[in-house]
TrEMBL record:
GO terms for molecular function: ATP binding. The lineage of its organism: Bacteria, Pseudomonadati, Bacteroidota, Chitinophagia, Chitinophagales. This is ABC transporter ATP-binding protein. Signal peptide: none annotated. Pfam families: ABC_tran. It comes from Chitinophaga defluvii. Residues 2-233 form the ABC transporter domain. PANTHER family: ABC TRANSPORTER ABCH.1, IMPORT ATP-BINDING PROTEIN. Gene3D superfamilies: P-loop containing nucleotide triphosphate hydrolases (3.40.50.300). Keywords: ATP-binding, Nucleotide-binding, Transport. InterPro entries: AAA+_ATPase, ABC_transporter-like_ATP-bd, ABC_transporter-like_CS, ABC_transpr_LolD-like, MacB-like_ATP-bd, P-loop_NTPase.
Amino acid sequence: MLTARNITKNYSNLHVLKGVNITVHQGEIVTIVGSSGAGKSTLLHILGTLDTPSGGEVWLDDVNLTALKGSLLADVRNKYMGFIFQFHHLLPEFNALENVCIPGFIAGTAKSAVRERAAFLLETLGLKDRMDHKPKALSGGEQQRVAVARALINNPAVVMADEPTGNLDSKNARELHNLFFELRDKFQQTFIIVTHNEELAPLSDRQLVMKDGRIVSGNAEENGALENIIVEK
């Protein structure tokens, strides 16, 4: 599904990524671990097209994401990728349902359909009775579940999560990781997760270890049919 080939990232003389290769298949939960400064978040941001590599290519099935620019790249990112960060980044003036709807509205989907899917996702994530609450009235775990629903609103090919449990206590962190597996089993959702959580990272389907800008273990070659995604301009 998602393939990165020989990804490098340089800032002047600082070489953050040094030729990274990675393939992630549909329905797979992959965690990326390593010490601070290993290049984990930089790699995730490049895979999610939030940053551009100095060299190499990122492909989503038969689409070369690194060749896309401007509004077309933004459109592909909005429709085919979801993002979860350590801090939920919910808009405080909107309630949970409205926060979840925003990417769907940006994608141009009919508002009634977006609201229906947002309500379905929030109910699936155990927030049926919290949809009308604004972020300040939600717990940290509830806010992060709203962020998960927002990431899923456009039925993305892959969800990128950057330290999604970093701001949660151990109980909520465990529940969130369990939720990722439930979503994978229910929707065949794909996740790439950067985490420092040494207890939860090994529970993934595959754990990639980064050191000094390279993947040093867990990146065995895999074969399998890829789903075709048609990107409409």
